[in-house]
Here is the input.
Amino acid sequence: MSIEYLGLSEINGPLVALEGVQNASFDEIVEITVDEKEKKLGRIVEIYEDKAVIQVFKGTDNISLKNTHTKLSGHPLEIALSPDILGRTFNGIGQPIDGLGEIIPEKKEDVNGKPLNPVTREYPRNYIRTGISAIDGLTTLIRGQKLPIFSGNGLPHDQLAAQIVKQASLGDNSDEEFAIVFAAMGVKYDVANFFRRTFEESGVSSHVVMFLNLANDPVVERLITPKVALTAAEYLAFEKSMHILVILTDMTSFAEAMREVSSSKGEIPSRKGYPGYLYSELATIYERAGIVAGVNGSVTQIPILTMPNDDITHPIPDLTGYITEGQIVLDRAMHGQSIYPPINVLPSLSRLMKDGIGAGYTREDHQDIANQLFSSYAKVGEARNLASVIGEDELSPIDKKYLAFGKAFETEFVGQGAMENRSIIDTLNIGWRLLRMLPKEELDRVDTKILDKYYNAVQES
Amino acid sequence: MTKTGKIFGINGPIIYIKGNTGFKMSEMVYVGKEKLVGEVIGLTSDQTTIQVFEETSGLKPGEEVIATGGALSVTLAPGIITNIFDGIQRPLAEIAKNSGAYISRGISVDSLDTEKLWETHMVIKPNQTVYGGTIIAEVPETSAVVHKVMIPPDLEGVILSVMPDGKYTIKDTIAVLQLEDGSEVNLTMTQVWPIRVPRPTHSRYPASKPLITGQRILDTLFPIAKGGTAAVPGGFGTGKTMTQHQIAKWSDADIIVYIGCGERGNEMTQVLEDFSKLVDPKSGNPLMDRTTLIANTSNMPVAAREASIYTGITLAEYYRDMGYDVAIMADSTSRWAEALRELSGRLEEMPAEEGFPAYLASRLSAFYERAGMMRNLNGTEGSVSIIGAVSPQGGDFSEPVTQNTKRFVRCFWGLDKSLAYARHFPAIHWLTSYSEYLEDLAPWYADNVGSDFVDYRNQIVALLNQESSLMEIVKLIGSDVLPDDQKLILEIARVIRLGFLQQNAFHKEDTCVPLEKQMKMMETILYLYQKCRALVSMGMPMSILKEDSIFEKVIAIKYDVENDALYKFNDYKKAIDVFYDKVIEKNA
Here is the structure.
């Protein structure tokens, strides 16, 4: 018979304090019954002797200092796992909300996870073809990578993520088992619905696990949603040998929730009011991507975050960029010109790309052409700046060629249809076609042999 | 009688004990039933504050805390090289054997293998008087490193007996020492040293030799001395980690200590995989045979991240004491500073700038001052060089960690976002970077590479600076209106940027370049400049000069001249002469 504690000693925002508790442990989950009927879960976030501070997931509405019973569970938050979670929908703390009943657990797992030992990791090398030129060609996604999309409000990051999911899952290795874990933190109903519809339309919904914490759901739940989702992903990947693509949207809401709770705990803020442990918290989420040596599965993460005021130096995108293995940056100016996907390739990067492309993976010229496209497109920016000062007519002939190249690059290489699925060879060939708009001497990043082989050969054909 | 206390409060990685426990400051403690490792960081008469190096979920008030009597220390003995440790020197491979793919809590493993038998060669004799640091035995630790077993720094006396050469574990007694007071000490290969205390040395030497890295922009433009300190600041994606990897791979240090402090797990895996495969060009041994890794990735506990930097430098100092040149890669010191901030916040200390604690500057200086070229206690000469990556928030160098680091390092390799965007790597910007070692090292370069080396280097830097001021004009009115001598400067600066500064880490020849080749490359570029200047002063327009492919040819030297085929440089000189004559002939 477990002890129930009557009443509370303090309520402050999402936090409540309970005195006289015995045997409470740090990070333990408690169940609070309000007025004998409503049940809320909470987590112990601080303990001083017999006083526990509890963070209540469903919010503290209706709670008074007198009307509660609190019961300790004796363990941190756990979720029930079994292969049956595929195709199901859960709320932000892992409880089913699709009316199909509870999961009969094969096992229960602590959602906090444990750090993966670097010695047992396998370095990711297999590329995932997304069919999107700007990604496949210039910021290649690798299986086991964490590659976030840095976006802004009103930009088509959801469409892009949906297109990646659709085209990557129908990829070349369709015989392998894949699944998608989708976690929504504080997103609008429409967004969640858009993803659900996309999964249905592309016929993958039986391979999707959804964890939804929508914009009007309790803020505190959001703090645990990505951890719950990743626990499910790790289970499917490392115990059921599946290749998992995890979409986390929107990480900004997650960080905002952290700031809210931190300030009600009275913690000392560091940058822009975010708590000092923002980096560590983000890291414990993002680092849960990867491949374990000797296991057939993998966890690939595509977190989406909206940069407040499109500012890439804001703490959330900034700290994310330091943890993740690259980033895909969307650009409002390109969106304004109706280019889809509006990927600004210059600040975009894939750190794992270098080891997963080239001869044996994609094609021998891949690294060279990517470097050359980056370098030439960077020069386009310089030519445009000059043109805006002295006018396009006054530009030297070579600068004019760069302007033309820049335009073609944006519309033909980066720009493509929302349903268009390009092969990697197509992508590379489009790259060469565009580079031929520039004189051969300007292509200084390509190995001489490769330049001779592709610059001329493709021209003749 | 060991001192104990009972947990009173828990807040993340910080726990409190009520009452006066009698613990000492910085003492190592075991916390709770699972014996999590912790360290005392605050004492008052009614409260003891402890930081715990492992995840604290599930700890309960009332659980016991046991003092160990000693400070947080590392074990120093053969077996360090090729190993990979976490922030408090627990071997990750052993942890994996015990707990599988994930790191669990409260795992008690020895830092080093205590069973392994090492081939030991004794180098002392009975009745010999020995002091702290005296080398008593030699153990081939890897194909590249001979481990020298030393008397601990605080002991001296007369050797009573010595074991014969043979195979011993790090726990076996290999000699017996009689101290001055007559007591006897059994000497083993093992020493224990607290991580926060620098190991003593005899004296410090001024910087006089460069740490040669094979990276042109570093060796030539902004060299670091052996025993020097350098900071590599840059926003994400600018290539801090690549720069560190390149130095760890190709520098001429004897030992590399690579500290992955709060960084990505996959990066550490990559270092492990790459370094085991790559071969040191000088010795032919695997690079891993001179490397030890400290991995405290960003998702591992934050307090151990704070300790990892000290663990790394203590290991480095130990090998320095044997007379080796050690280089430390600390990637990244910002994560360490943030760990300080995180713990400081939990302790509710008064924050200074940007929430960092006020003692940030003094901690940074104490760390960087542990570098240096030293005369060791045993008379050998060794050095510890520190290359610290800095990850400034938003890539803005005015933030506190970069600024404070700048005060204590003498080499600053500033990485630039726009260079990285254009995939100009290494993205070290030649205008914001500097090295204070240049003057100290000039005599070495003159004696060992060539008397003109520093002069060439200064000419190259001057050309780049002129380019930068000319670019200000070009941005406003375009390059067409510049006079030809200025157009020439732009063209030569382009050759320098593409042909000299840019270096391809994935190209077999270009990834590491010997100093002789760096010197010849500068010489060729400057010769080209000199000849072109002569042509321009004769009134030849740049448009004619640029028709020739000579500029592209010089840019491609880095790929076309192999590192062991420097005789080919003569052909380039001839080609420049031919180009000169041809232009004069055609246009005279």
Chain A has a mean pLDDT of 90. The longest strand of chain A covers residues 38-48. Residues 366-390 of chain A form the longest helix (25 residues). Chain A touches chain B through 84 residues (CB under 8 Å).
